[in-house]
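> example.struct
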């Protein structure tokens, strides 16, 4: 091969290499990522409250014992021992308490209602989405806490229910809930608090550690209280409760006779 032909071949190879190198930026250029759905971005910023949560102090079984030993009786905040009741309302509660307790003992297991479900033996679950947070317990009580920016319905459209009407908003990892229009607060087990259906409830719930949540609770009711009634609740996460079969809705297998004694088996009828 002549020297001229060899040089021409080298020039051709260099030209081809230069062409390939020129194409490399276009080949290696990545396709820009698709825009992120704003809802997905919002979802990613919400806290993780998965699991089953029980109000602190409610872990003992019917014997009054936990795995660690005997437990002290739980203070039921919603009984209102420290509530700033108006004098006439306190007198009304004391007068009505015996009859209401007797009626509650004979009632069916139809749920705790609000606010009692937030401090009960029934485990809670929190299902969080950008638009609302669902708070559920084993008695099939369900609260819809709307976080989509809506307000409470107008008075003519606001119907009292056992769970009330709840709207919420997020401040960082804290869920602030405002609830009103609660019908018959405390319809099972403990017949309190005896506030009016116009009472307003505010909760500030946050997760403070892997297995603990805390809630700051305030109840305001111009009809029955002299001022805000505030206290704190806590919830402890319990594992493996997803395998617990808990059927308590309309479960009236246990009855109470006219003298307040429990009847687990009806006596023979003559």
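> example.seq
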């Amino acid at each position: 091969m002549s020297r001229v032909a060899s040089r021409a071949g080298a020039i051709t190879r260099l030209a081809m290499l230069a062409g390939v190198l020129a194409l490399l930026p276009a080949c290696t250029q990545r396709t820009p990522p698709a825009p992120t759905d704003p809802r997905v971005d919002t979802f990613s910023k919400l806290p993780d409250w998965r699991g089953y949560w029980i109000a602190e102090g409610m872990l003992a079984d019917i014997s009054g014992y936990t795995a660690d030993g005997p437990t002290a009786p739980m203070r039921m905040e919603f009984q209102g021992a420290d509530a700033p009741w108006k004098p006439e309302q306190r007198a009304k509660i004391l007068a009505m308490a015996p009859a209401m307790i007797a009626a509650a003992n004979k009632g069916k297991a139809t749920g705790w209602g609000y606010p009692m479900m937030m401090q009960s033996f029934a485990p809670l679950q929190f299902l969080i989405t950008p638009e609302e947070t669902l708070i559920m317990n084993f008695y099939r009580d369900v609260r819809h806490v709307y976080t989509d920016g809506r307000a409470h319905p107008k008075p003519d459209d606001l119907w009292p229910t056992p769970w009330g009407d709840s709207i919420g908003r997020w401040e960082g990892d804290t869920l602030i809930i405002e609830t009103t229009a609660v019908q018959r607060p405390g319809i099972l087990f403990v017949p309190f608090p005896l506030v009016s259906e116009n009472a307003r409830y505010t909760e500030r719930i946050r997760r403070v550690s892997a297995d603990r949540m805390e809630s700051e609770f305030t109840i305001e009711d111009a009809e029955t209280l002299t001022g805000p009634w505030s206290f704190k609740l806590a919830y402890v996460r319990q594992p493996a409760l997803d395998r617990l079969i808990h059927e308590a809705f309309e479960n009236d297998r246990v009855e109470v006779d006219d003298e307040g004694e429990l009847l687990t088996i009806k006596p023979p009828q003559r």
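> remarks
Residues 172 and 264 are 49 Å apart (CA to CA).
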